[in-house]
Amino acid sequence: MQDISLHILDLVQNAVTAGSDLVKISIEDNPDTGLLTVSIEDNGAGMSEEQAARAVDPFYTTRSTRRVGLGIPMFKAAAEISGGCFELKSGEGRGTEIKAVFDQNNIDCPPLGKTGDTLISIILCNPGIDFIYTHSCGGSTFELDTRLIKNELGEVPINNPDVLNWIADYISQGLDEIYGGVSK
Amino acid sequence: MKSLKELEAIRNRTLESVNLRKDRTGTRIVVGMATCGIAAGARPVLLSFLEEVKKRNLGNVTVTQTGCIGVCRLEPMVEVYMPGEEKVTYVKMTADKVARVVAEHIVNGQPVAEYTIGAQE
Questions:
Q1: Partner residue facing B47 (CB), from A63, A117, A156
Q2: Is A17 near chain B, with CB under 8 Å?
Q3: Where are the domains positioned within chain B?
Q4: Given a cut of 50, is residue A184 above it in pLDDT?
Q5: Which fold has domain A4-178?
Q6: What Rg do the C-alpha atoms of chain A give, in angstroms?
Q7: CATH number 3.40.30.10 is the correct assignment for the domain at B22-120
Q8: Least C-beta-crowded within 10 Å: which of A11, A47, A183, B9?
Q9: pTM for the complete prediction?
């Protein structure tokens, strides 16, 4: 994966496959310490203790199309290689939370990438699932909650191209704002 | 600053201009978005299809995703389903190839043979 936003896109697919109807994606950027915390929390089927322990093993997968499952192991490796850490909490029927900390001062830390593109992709492909995206930098926070958007839209689907276009602008403006007007 | 209230205008405009389709008779463009697809560059391909569909105002075309199609080395892969036609599978897609697939295949019904899995294998 070239950047962190692509890992997020990949891990959200796990949440979708697990039958979640609400997925929380949170990014916390601390400019003082350089630490970037990424978490993805779903309310899907969750994993047993044994499955959760094996999820970080690249040769473990629940799928039958191939024998490897690289999404979680690559995310873990990307965090750890930058001097950060990784944590997975899950329970059957309780959903899954994946959290990783990246040290952005480390030369091996991947760039965050286009989180807006990731959000648009997951909303386009999963109109029936709700997402809460929280992105904070220093003291300011941007939040996008698809439930509020759907309220305004009524019978118009959230993956209508004009709506997605608006959401993309909304995110890019929100992120510009929390990063002090400097585009990231 | 943008506000959620602007969505009301989009909603009214959309309800007037587009008939909201509930059937699945239109064309479906399906992008493989498993770990393999994403790592190979599926996200810009997906977003380019969305952009082209919006630009050309193609009302009965749906852009969506699937998991691993099973031939990871040929990712990013895209499947096009048109009513009454056989499925066409495109391999090693890039954002640059998308405009041609939309113009020749989605709009004019002629698959771009050189991008398909048949030309590759």
A1: A117
A2: yes
A3: 22-120
A4: no
A5: Heat Shock Protein 90 (3.30.565)
A6: 16
A7: yes
A8: A183
A9: 0.90
